[in-house]
# Entry
Amino acid sequence: MKSIDWNNVQEATESRRLAPGGYVCGIVRAEDLPDKEYLRILFDIAEGPDKNYFRDMAERMQLNGWPYAGVLIRSYKPKAQPFFKGFLTAVEASNPGYHFANDERTLARKLVGLVLSEEEYEYNGEIRTRLRVASVRSADAIRKGDYDTPPLKKLARAAAPAAANDGFVSVDDDEDIPF
# Structure
């Protein structure tokens, strides 16, 4: 192992997790992935006691390539365009005078309301939870508490084996098969 002066290394500490709920967020950056027809939108908390949550986490973890941010994917494929329009409506309502003109770069530094909820996922055979963007609202709707936080989204589990009385007849190895 290489020689490291452990006196100059800060010990990692337990970080506080964001709670499910509504947050007024600022868009850090939006990237277009035209071959996939979606925007990858990086955000951070813009108001309240959790302001700059992701930036502060990146600093604590000494991630020099920030933004370590929340990520929101918004597809603009034909079937997803109504949802994309809902996102744009929320951004425009949160930023008076702003109008999206099909340039994702103009989304940077704009406010939007996001409702975060928890979902289960599997990692190395272990069930864990993470936050996900459940819905997009205006910043004012979040400030007024005009939103619902969905309950935990459970991981779909494989169905249990069918019961013994499922309409099939058991065939033992020593029986003759009737055909």
Observations:
- DSSP finds three helices and five strands in the chain.
- The first helix runs from residue 53 to 60.
